[in-house]
């Protein structure tokens, strides 16, 4: 029986993690759960899984939970509360599924206590990859990726030497606008962008998938997870989302990991590693799938992918700046304040005007993040 803290239990990854727990009651126990504002769903999770404690980032939600459950469990607030439940001594695995930069602090807290982290919060490695890799070694913590692409690479590398990697090949569905002409991008609405063809995800990640920024963030994440330079990481468009990623080795052979687009599979793999846990999920029917297609990504129509590669090559605080600008631009697009085509423009402007710090400390990263968010908000407000 292993005790879990699930950071972001009311989000897409969090709810699917609880589905894995639900299917394996003899293996996993829920210790702590967190939410931002979805208090009603968290209350339902409390009734079903009886955690020791919960965290709400919104103080109003925290107060509501105390009123209902205060005599039964511990209710904490904000990032400090998330860091606390990520580092409790009885916790064996921390599922880091918070959305955006908010996941960095609690993930670092778990690393500092030598936990296993099932990482779904890609922004942690995007913004602070160099720092995180140092901390993992320092505290002997274990990081297992949950993103389907990185889980695929992780699985392909079992039994292989990292010195024999020639290329990591991340697959991308291409999102809902894979074949849409570029002159129509300025008219894309949030409702259209939220209709991903293959995956069911939260709104921020779904918009990132539509712009291909999600793939850019995954390239950054792969660089730190597998210690591979940017020039040895490639992206191919694979609309069926059956091959989740591939590794090409120095002898020219390629290993690929295949599966249906079901996030419970990489979640379960991260929780159970090094074991594979039996399940009753749907299996692939290869004759029914028929054929698999591949194409090069279009960097002209999807400039966010190129911006991510550029920021990764630049290094220092550039990835944190890119991530912060993207988070604000996506939020403003979802609120109807920006057009779809404004998202890469905001990111490019933020990178052009920012002062980039090399080999940044956590303070440098936090400063770059806060400054970029303020600058993007101020600039976008002035152009209305």
Description:
The strands form 2 sheets. This protein has a 7-stranded parallel β-sheet, sandwiched between helices. The chain has 3 domains: 2-145, NAD(P)-binding Rossmann-like Domain (Rossmann fold); 148-260 and 288-298, no CATH class; 315-384, Rna Polymerase Sigma Factor, Chain: A, CATH 1.10.1740. The mean pLDDT is 96. The protein has helices spanning 12-23, 39-49, 59-69, 78-86, 104-112, 123-139, 148-156, 190-193, 203-211, 213-225, 264-272, 286-289, 303-314, 318-334, 342-353, 362-382, and strands at 2-7, 28-35, 53-56, 74-77, 93-96, 116-119, 142-145, 165-172, 233-237, 243-249, 254-258. It is α/β, with parallel strands linked by helices.
What are the SSEs and their pairings?
Elements: E1 2-7, H1 12-23, E2 28-35, H2 39-49, E3 53-56, H3 59-69, E4 74-77, H4 78-86, E5 93-96, H5 104-112, E6 116-119, H6 123-139, E7 142-145, H7 148-156, E8 165-172, H8 190-193, H9 203-211, H10 213-225, E9 233-237, E10 243-249, E11 254-258, H11 264-272, H12 286-289, H13 303-314, H14 318-334, H15 342-353, H16 362-382
Helix pairs in contact: 4-5, 5-6, 6-10, 6-14, 9-14, 10-13, 13-15, 14-15, 14-16
Concise synopsis of the structure shown:
The protein is α/β, with parallel strands linked by helices and 384 residues long.
